[in-house]
Specification:
With 464 residues, the protein is of the alpha+beta class. It is built from eight helices and 20 strands.
Length: 464
């Protein structure tokens, strides 16, 4: 019986592969038919590379083809072909470069990849004494280098063609996960001259503006609190004392913050299609692999020293997966660390589950340790880091990105997304406190209130 099952699986697998190849060929044939309209020469589309391919639940197939020349891909030169469930092309788009053969400057590198990495570090203002060490190749064929002085993880290097003006320059495309910051660079160094060509940061930063945390009582907060009460009531109806779902005491969606409502109990089974085995599974078999804030979609933990690793004290819900921790908003947030990490774990999981309903699924490159469907690359769950770098900030390393900030790095599929939630330093004073401050003092035009910072120049000025 077991051998029969394996045989049936192999037959299904090869049939699926054959069907996919047919769809890809249809996409290539479509590009050839449109070449005149798109002003493409045969060399412009005769060496296409399948970048990715995904099929939705409705049978719509999306095929992404990368233009290349003599085996070297052209950066950002892509065509998207969409086929319906019957295999008919229903949509197309491209930004291929026409006349590619005449625009390529060379296909032979002069600069070695190790030198390109050093040039990249120099462009970023990094200082180092050592040299990159070759480690072999990745599963996708890129050269891999170790250079701990510059990056946290291995550097991948691959030859590509980059459009510069009206020509195509041969470049070393480098992936740099930087030491000392959250920057994750996709950088290109000219493979002939060693000069910088272009870069893109996979990390998006979110520096909070002044007043971002004000309590706007006359705005929509009342509506949010009303929705929150209704959501809590619905949760109580859907879940009983015997529910096997993990529970979390959090500021549940749609409550944005403590200013917008109260904490309530949320569960991990709201979207079974997106997380069929709950939020603490990683093997696709019923039962949790972790009782801490870790699972298939995210690992949430404290990273106060900003080394990207857990500080050592994991938030644990126990065998019952009950994450119910006290929170005191009048104290330093680190006094309520377990509650904060629980909220972070909940929110990232909800972002995963809700976005899956909107099409950001396994086959379209979402973040998961195990892809239950077997489509696309797994091994890329989100690393969600709470209080990230706060210890460095307090020790005098006043990098502005370490405070009042957040960032998210989104490298290519198969690599972990990284979310870093920084500490937020606020000065909260009520009107009564201000009145008391001036009750027995002379009238002044302004007063400066110093914060307990390592930087004595950091003050908040209250204008009268």
């Amino acid at each position: 019986m077991r051998n029969l099952f394996i045989l049936a699986f192999l037959v299904f697998f090869f049939q699926l592969q054959a069907q996919n190849q047919q769809l890809v060929q249809k996409a290539i044939d479509h590009i050839a038919q449109k070449s005149g309209e798109w002003q493409l020469q045969k060399a412009d589309y005769s060496d296409l590379v399948l970048s990715s391919m995904a099929t939705s639940e409705k049978g719509i197939t999306y095929i992404y083809l990368n233009q290349s020349y003599q085996g070297i891909p052209v950066r950002n030169a892509m065509s998207t072909i969409v086929l319906d469930a019957k295999g008919k092309v229903v949509s197309d788009a491209h930004n291929f470069i026409s006349g590619i053969a005449e625009k390529v400057n060379t296909l032979t590198p002069v600069v070695l990849p190790e030198k390109a990495i050093l040039h990249a570090g120099g462009h970023l203002g990094a200082s180092f004494r050592g040299q990159p060490i070759a480690k072999g190749r990745s599963e996708k064929g890129q050269l891999l280098f170790s250079f701990p002085e510059l990056t946290k993880s291995d550097i991948s290097a691959e030859l590509k063609l980059e459009k510069t003006g009206n020509s195509l320059s041969l470049v070393w495309n480098l992936q740099l996960d930087m030491v000392g910051s959250a920057d994750y660079w996709d950088m290109n160094i000219d493979a002939v001259t060693g000069e910088f060509v272009s870069k893109h940061n996979y990390t998006t930063y979110c520096t909070h503006h002044h007043g971002a945390f004000d309590k706007h009582e006359k705005c929509e907060i009342g509506t949010f609190r009303k929705i929150n009460r209704q959501a809590t009531a619905v949760n109580k109806l859907l879940h009983t004392q015997q529910s096997a779902a993990a529970s979390y005491t959090v500021y549940a969606i749609p409550v944005e913050s403590p200013n917008h409502g109260d904490r309530s109990i949320a569960f991990d089974d709201a979207y079974p299609a997106a997380s069929p085995f709950g939020w603490h599974d990683t093997d696709g078999v019923q039962g949790a692999e972790f009782t801490i804030t870790r699972g298939n979609n995210v690992h949430a933990y404290q990273d106060k020293n900003d080394d990207d690793n857990p500080d050592g004290t994991d938030t644990n819900g126990g065998d019952n997966l009950k994450f119910d921790f006290p929170m005191d908003l009048t104290q330093d947030p680190r006094q309520s660390a377990d509650a904060a990490v629980t909220n972070l774990f909940y929110m990232v999981n909800m972002m995963h589950d809700v976005s899956a309903q909107l099409g950001f699924t396994e086959e379209f490159g979402n973040f998961q340790q195990k892809n239950y469907s077997g489509k696309a690359d797994g091994g890329d769950y989100v690393l969600a880091q709470a209080f990230d770098g706060i210890s460095l900030h307090e020790s005098g390393q006043t990098n502005p990105s370490k405070i009042n900030n957040a960032n998210f790095s989104t490298p290519s599929d198969g690599f972990n997304g990284r979310m870093q939630m920084k500490g937020v330093r606020c000065l909260l004073m009520h009107l009564k406190a201000l009145k008391a401050l001036f009750l027995n003092t002379e009238a002044r035009n302004s007063v400066c209130l110093s914060l307990p910072e390592t930087n004595p120049q950091l003050q908040v000025k209250w204008q009268l």
